[in-house]
UniProtKB/TrEMBL annotation:
Keywords: NAD, Oxidoreductase. It comes from Arthrobacter ulcerisalmonis. It comes from the Bacteria. The keyword Ion transport does not apply. GO terms for molecular function: alcohol dehydrogenase (NAD+) activity; maleylacetate reductase activity; metal ion binding. Belongs to the iron-containing alcohol dehydrogenase family. The keyword NAD applies. Its EC number is 1.3.1.32. Residues 165-347 form the Fe-containing alcohol dehydrogenase-like C-terminal domain. CDD domains: MAR. Gene3D superfamilies: 3.40.50.1970, Dehydroquinate synthase-like - alpha domain. This is Maleylacetate reductase.
Amino acid sequence: MPLEFTHESLGQRVLFGSGHAAENLAQEIHRIGGSKVMVIAAEFEQPLAEMLTVGLDIALNYSDVVAHVPLEKADKARQEAREYGIDLIVSIGGGSTTGLAKAIALTARIPIIAIPTTYAGSEATNVWGLTEAARKTTGVDNAVLPRTIIYDAALTASLPVELSIASGLNGMAHCIDSMWAPRTDPINQALAAEGIRALAAGLPAIKANPDNLEGREQALYGAYLAAVAFASAGSGLHHKICHVLGGTYNLPHAQTHAVILPRVLALNAPSAPKAMQRIGQALGSMDPIGALNSLYEQLDAPRALKDFGYAEKSIEESIELILPFVPASNPRQITADLMRELLESAWSGKSTAESYPSSR
Ligand code: NAD
C-alpha cells in the first residue's frame, strides 16, 4: 500500500528540565516580551506560583480556578484580564488551570506560558473547553495553544500517587485512542507509541516510589507526547465516551479515562489488528490487553465508575447520549449492545480479562 497522509504539526516551544521551571519562566517571559503578566494558579498552587515567580514583575495573581471551566468563571477571569491590560498569561497547575488560561486566550488572543503539574496534557493541545448549564462545550482554536510549555517533573512530585496514576492513564488513553482517531496518521501514531512506552515505564516507578524523579520525568514526557498525538489525531471512541460521561454525570476527569481505557481497547481489539500490534510493541508484549491489565494491577489503577459517582441506572441514558458521537473512523461498528456491555463492565469494575466485550 502506498504511504500517503496529511499531517499538521502545531508550533510550540517546549522547555523540559527538572528544577529549572523558575529560570525557564523568567527567560520565556523576557523572550515573548510580556509587560503585563497574569499568573493563574489554583488556591493550593499559590505557594508554588510564588516560588516560581519570585523577582518577576507580575501584574495580576489569579486563583479562582474551578474544574471544567464554568462559563461564569471564565467571564470573570476575562474581565479581570481586560481591566489589568494583561498581555501574557502564565498558567501553573493541572488541566483545570490551563483550561482557564485557554478560556481567556480564546477571546483576548494573548499568549500563554503553561507550567503543568499533572499529566493531563492540555498544555500541548489547541482544544478549549467551557461548561455551561452542566454541558461541556469544546472547540479548537490555535489561539489557545500555549506559546511555550515549561515542564519540570519536580513540580509533579506533590501530586498524590493515586492521582498521578489516574492522570498518567489519562495520558495513556490519549495515546491509545490516537491509534484509531479520525485523523490518525503515521506521525501521530509514532508519537503515541513512544508516549505509551514512556508512561508504561514512568507510572510503575512513581507507584514504587512517589519521589522518583526519573519516573516522573518519564510520565511527564509521555504525557506531552500523548497530548501532541491526541491534538493531531483528534478524539476517538474513548474520548467521546469519557466526554459524555464526565460532562453529563460530573465524574472526575482522569479517573473516568483510566476506567474506560482498557474497555475501549478490548472493544476495538478484534477490528484493529495493526493498532493492537503497535500498542503491544509499545507495551513490550504480544498481548496488549493482557499487558494493560497487568499494568493496571501493578498500579492498583481505578477500575470501577461506581466508585466515582456513576449510577448503574444511568447506563441506558448514557448509551443514547454516546452513540451519536461514535466517530465514523472507529475500526469497529458500535451497537447499543456493545456499548451496554462496555458501560456495565466499567460501572462494576470487572477486569477486561473477565468481561471482554464480545466480538459479535
Ligand atoms: P485538575 O487540574 O482539576 O487537577 C486535579 C486535582 O489535582 C485538583 O484537585 C488539583 O488541585 C490537584 N493537583 C494538580 N496538580 C497538583 C500537584 N502538583 N500536587 C498536588 N495536587 C495537584 O485535573 P487534570 O486531570 O489535570 O485536568 C482535567 C481537566 O483538564 C478537565 O477539565 C479536562 O477536560 C481538561 N483537559 C483538557 C485537555 C485539552 O486538550 N483541552 C486535555 C486534557 C485535559
